[in-house]
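Observation: inputs received (chain + heme C).
Thought: call the complex predictor directly.
Action: predict_structure
Action Input:
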Amino acid sequence: MMFTHRLKAIQGVAFFLTLLSCSHSWAAPDAVAGKVKALVCTACHGDGGVSSLPGFPHLAAQPLLSIFYQLLQFRDQRRKGGGMEAIAATLSEQDMRDIAAYYAALQAPPPVAGGSTDKITLGQQIAQQQYCSSCHGAQLQGQKHVPRLAGQSSEYFVSQLRNLRSGARADMDGTMISAARSLTDEEIEAMAVYARSLP
Ligand code: HEC
Ligand code: HEC
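Observation:
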C-alpha cells in the first residue's frame, strides 16, 4: 500500500516535470480559439465557465496550468469521473491549452453567500491551520497547477476532497492526499462553505 503510494507519487512528479520541461516547445495557448473549442463544454460547465448544475465544477478563472493538467489526467485515465475521460480523449494537447487559456481568463464565479457563519469561520480557521492557502493561495484563488477553490460549487468541493482523502482520486505528488487525510466530514463541509463564499 505504502509502496504503491510512493510509486504513484514518483510517477506523478516525473510526469509533472516532463510537463514543465516541454512547455517551451509548445505553441502559445490561444484563448480565442479556446472559446470555440470549449463550446461542447458549456452544456455541463456553463456559459462563461460557471456551471448551473449542482456538483459540477466551475472552470472560470481556474489557473491555466491546473485546467490543462487535469485534462491530461483525465485523458490518461489517471483521474476518472463525470465522463471526462472520454471527453478529454477527443482533445489534442493544443486544444487543451487553448481551452485552458480561455477559461483561465474568464471572470471568477460569483461568491455564494449563505450557510452558517459558524461554518464559514470554522472553514477559514482550518484553511489557515492546515496551510491550504500556502498552496491554493491566500484567497484560495489557485496558482500555477493548484486549482482555484474560491467560489467553487460546495457539492463538488466535498466530493473531490472525500475522493482525495480516500485515494479514489490520485494527485500528482501525494501532497494533496496527505493534506486531506486527517480531515473529518464536518471540517470538509465547513471548508466547502467557506471556499464558495470567497470572491
Ligand atoms: C457531460 C458533462 C460534461 C461535459 C460535456 C464536460 N465536462 Fe468537464 N467535468 C464534468 C464533471 C461531472 C466533472 C467532475 C468530474 C469528477 O467528479 O471528478 C468535470 C471535471 C472537469 C475538469 C476538472 C475541474 C477541476 O476543478 O479539477 C475540467 C478541467 C473539465 N471538466 C474540463 C472540461 C472541458 C474542457 C470540456 C469540454 C471539452 C468538458 N469538461 C466537458 C462534466 C462534463
Ligand atoms: C502542498 C500543496 C497543497 C496543500 C497544502 C493543499 N492542497 Fe489542495 N490541491 C493541491 C493540488 C496540487 C491539487 C490538485 C491535485 C491533483 O489533481 O493532482 C489540489 C486539489 C484540491 C481540491 C480539488 C479541487 C478541484 O478543482 O478539483 C480541493 C477541494 C482541495 N485541494 C482542497 C484543499 C484543502 C481544503 C486544503 C487544506 C486542508 C488543501 N487543499 C491543501 C495542493 C495542495
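Thought: report the result.
Final Answer: The domain at 117-196 is CATH 1.10.760.10 (Cytochrome Bc1 Complex; Chain D, domain 2). The pocket of heme C (ligand 1) is lined by residues 38, 40-41, 43-45, 56-57, 59, 67, 70-71, 81-84, 87, 99, 147 (CB under 6 Å).
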